Amino acid sequence: MKVRSSVCAVVAATAVLFSAEGLANATPQRGGNLVFAVSLGEPATFDCHAAGSLNVMYRVAPHYSTLLQIDAAHYPKVVGDLAESWTVSPDGLVYEFKLRPNVKFHDGTKLTSGDVRASFERMRNPPQGVLSVRKELLADVASIETPDAGTVVFRLEKPNVSMLALLAQPYGCIYSEALLKSDPTYPAKKVMGTGPFKFVSYTPGAEWVGERFPDYFRPGLPHLDGFKAISLTPPSAVNALAGGQVMVDFRGVSPLEADRIVSTRGKDVQIFEANPAISTLFMAMINTQKPALRDPRVRKALALALDHWEGSKAMERSTTLSVVGGLARPGSEFARSNAELEKLPGFGRNVDAARAEARRLLAEAGQANLKLTFLNRKPWPFLGVYLIDQFRQIGVTMVQEQVEDSQFFARRRAGEFDLAVEYLPDYLDDPTAKWSIFVSHEKNPANIARYNDPKVDTLMEEQSRIGDPAKRLVVIRQLEEYILTQGYTLPLFWGRRTTVVDSRLQGYVPAPTNYVGQDLSQFWIKR
Amino acid sequence: MPRYLGAKLLQLVLTLAGVAALIFLLLRVLPGDVVEAKYLAEGGNVSEEVLAAERTRLGLDRPTHEQFAEWMGGLVRLELGRSMWTGRPVAEEISSRLAVTMEVAVMATVIAIVIAVPLGIASALAHGSWLDQAIRVLTVAWLSVPAFWLGMLVLLGLLLVFEWGPPIEHISLFEDPLGNLTQLIWPALVVGARMSAMIARMLRSSLLEVLNEDYIRTARSKGVRESTIVARHALGNALLPAVTVVGMEFAFLLGGLVVTEQVFNLNGIGKLLIQAVGQNDFTLIQGLVMLFAVFFVSVNFATDLLYAALDPRVRLR
Amino acid sequence: MEAMAVPFERAARPAGRRGLRWLKGIGRFAREQPLGLASALIILVILFAGVFAVWVAPYDPLATDFAKLLLPPDATHWAGTDEFGRDIFSRLVYGARTALILGICSSLLGGIAGGLLGVTSAYFGGWVDTVLQRFVDILLSLPVIILALIVAAVLGRHEIYGIDANLMFAVAIPYMPKAARVIRAAALTVRTMPYIDAARAAGFSHPRIVLGHMAPNLAAPWLVLVSAFTAQTILLEAALSYLGVGVTDPTPSWGLMLSGVAVQSFSQAPWTVIFPGLAISLTVFAFSLLGDALRDTLDPKFRH
Prior knowledge:
The structure holds three protein chains of three kinds.
Chain A: H1 2-25, E1 33-38, H2 54-60, E2 68-70, E3 78-80, E4 83-88, E5 94-99, H3 113-124, E6 141-148, E7 151-156, H4 163-167, H5 177-182, H6 186-189, E8 197-203, E9 207-212, E10 226-231, H7 234-242, H8 255-265, E11 269-273, E12 281-286, H9 291-294, H10 296-305, H11 308-318, E13 321-323, H12 338-341, H13 351-364, E14 371-376, H14 381-392, E15 397-402, H15 405-414, E16 419-423, H16 431-434, H17 454-465, H18 469-485, E17 489-495, E18 498-502, E19 505-506, E20 524-525
Parallel strand pairs in A: 1-10, 14-15, 14-16
Antiparallel strand pairs in A: 2-3, 4-5, 5-7, 6-7, 8-9, 9-10, 11-18, 12-16, 12-17, 13-17, 19-20
Chain B: H1 2-29, H2 34-40, H3 48-58, H4 64-76, H5 90-125, H6 130-144, H7 147-162, H8 177-211, H9 214-221, H10 226-264, H11 269-279, H12 282-310, H13 312-316
Chain C: H1 22-32, H2 34-51, H3 53-56, H4 88-124, H5 126-140, H6 144-155, E1 159-160, E2 163-164, H7 165-172, H8 176-191, H9 194-201, H10 206-217, H11 219-243, H12 254-257, H13 261-264, H14 271-298
Antiparallel strand pairs in C: 1-2
């Protein structure tokens, strides 16, 4: 426990340091290479439009700019990246962006509004052979126009209160229109954008290297000469942090791992915590097409079996998932207070009563000896351990099936499971983007609970159109409560990120999502 | 001899063709394919059409026998195809990682021989004594320790005691030999220790066998000194089986490194295989498996030739 | 030419008289092989723990206790607790069950399948032998762990009564060809025995001769083989579980206990790493020594 307190002390110390000095007071020094760990495997593609995983984004983000971006330091505020300014028409249907002048691509060509339009068109309507995994986020866009080289206009079909946040998606890399014309799939194989760093080399299994782009459009940036992203397995990433061989692993480490690193590095590292949670929720989706799970009573019983509050204590030491919350990120504008949360099934404090009720429901449904399988991916065995232990206490037997990715996704898509792990895309908290997987299966096949429920669809649609935040929140709450009482999904835990950063590395901002602030332009190394 | 050679060669080719067929068919039983892992792991919504288009591009939608014929045809021309994950040629993916693996394997073998030869000889000479027993138990003990556990202890021990970890970026042998050594010596030690136990055991038993042969007894009865007997007569003959074991072990070492590379985060072919299996990268798995098989079969072939050259009885069989 | 040079190959000779006097044999074994006896005792203890895990283990191996995370060993938790507050000693005891069932079953499976293959090959000879041996060649030309890794990935998970049947196959398959080689060599000698010719002359069916006359004479080398395999299969299961293609959490498995969080908690909670590793090493050690001792006893050539 001594080590733990030392971490607390370091956290406290850095917090003080952080507020006293602030970012502005320190003068950034130019030069140096940022060496960081990527402990998530090899990227499947270099194309942001086809990517959603951090293992692509951590490597690719420093090479690209986006039209808008989310300000890491003031999450979830939207600020311009390539856009210098913008206006929104009063009816919310026309968004006009003025681009920065003098933005250059790494190949020396000048960025124009055509590049922006071509990139968003590619996301919206991918040509043959191009994959765009989030095109539904731009479904409300009717057309994109370029009145002149420095202006882009987005016209919407319907007003969408989340539009700016959707346009600020970190996956919205802007590609060169000229290159796209000759090969629409170039971004999958080649890295060429307007970001602060030029691509140098990628050695699969070893490293990804970038160097400063001298013509980057923000004067004086980036501070770093270059960066090197090293491919490591999660345990070796922690070893590398403990040995001072990498400066940071942005994905974060568990508090237990942080303790170990601090015990060897002491004051040479700083600890940052994203409070109270990062925007990643892990859930167990319930396959409503399975005969036993068709019965809402059974699904509710499963929800009632969970003791989130005690479970959180176990998760908090050794994993990066431990924050209790509903379907909205705790700490976000959409989240409930704990008191309100406790009224939802599975979040009550009186666990014994809840479990007694769960047993009663199961008996009533004739499923007192329910046997289930939990389909899980490789990195998160602990979720299965937790669920199995909880279900045992209401007499439900469950087996965890941890399979390779290809089998996992194939089986999940085909509905060959009882419960399966699911996690939400996590660059922002807005339900319009985040909750699309709860829309009926016939409308969105990515809904692996496989239910068709018009009420969910109606509420989803309704909340995305309400401009008044307070009124919108009412609908969002109603939707969240409805999904949870129907037992379509069991929210498990929200991510909690503990990042260990080498003390020399400056400019790190612990945003409540892993996806923003990753272009590395603000980082610098203190000598 | 040419006839013997020809027969052995034919056998070699047949075995390799068998391995190729076996691995190809095995992989086609796998549920799911690389397309699922590649596209769906990125999250978001991927339509059936996109998945189907990618399958067509990779040729995964063609009948199995066509895919098989194409792959076998490629093998005959020494082409391994392209990785279904990265799109790069399999040969390139493998060759960029082969050096690390081979280097560790060679280092481990050297370490193993250095440890094993004295142990094996001492054990055989002091046959039945406490020393022999001790060495025997020790070698069995070494073989019983899981390599990954030993590796973990070594790594964590280094970090805890010296607050130092081996370099994580690959250091080229030619640019910085010392740095390269500090990086690769640890996995080599872990694997070599295990291999040394294997070789020591083999050397002991083959030496014992030779020492019981008639000609050694004759030499002994003529009063030739024991050290001369061992050095001049016994060791030479006992070495052959031991060399065989070294060869076989070296081939198997490449397999053993799968786990060790994972522990030490070495970017070798073992780690590549684990990755390829996780991604269902069929062509890459096939290529790697063929590499292991070719390596093993060639070592086997070389050993057979060596035996044939030294022992005329084998040739005549 | 058997370039494989499996150390047990020398055991490949007839067991001699049938109706071996077992008790006397065991007595002799104990006298001549004190190490073998010691290892047999260790195995018995582990076997006992595995079989009677319900009574031996002080706690439920799956029961999490969130108030007792990563506690060091003490009077209540003899080997400490893990990151979920599960009692490590209890998990080790139940892990013995997993390791032994998987280890013994897969070596038996590999031994029986390979043995049958070997006997058949030797008995029929000719093209049957050639075809079977080429098949064995193919399986032998891949490193054990690689074959197991791929088979495990291909088959996926399929649990029957808490034991993963597919994993058992994955571990057994690489040992099958090894058994086939050794047993074939031994069977070739047995085949030349006069009573086999006599049985053939008497018009006995092939299966009857193979199973009734040849197999019993191969029991000794087979036993040596299977005990040595058990040591290796336990090690293999641990490695596969460590790599994440073996046993799935929360089923207690020694190899699994060494993957994931255990590595990271080492400096704060070394007991999570030390004990499972020791358990694997000790069990494998005992089975290997027993295999050696059996070989020395059953193989006359080694009795100097």
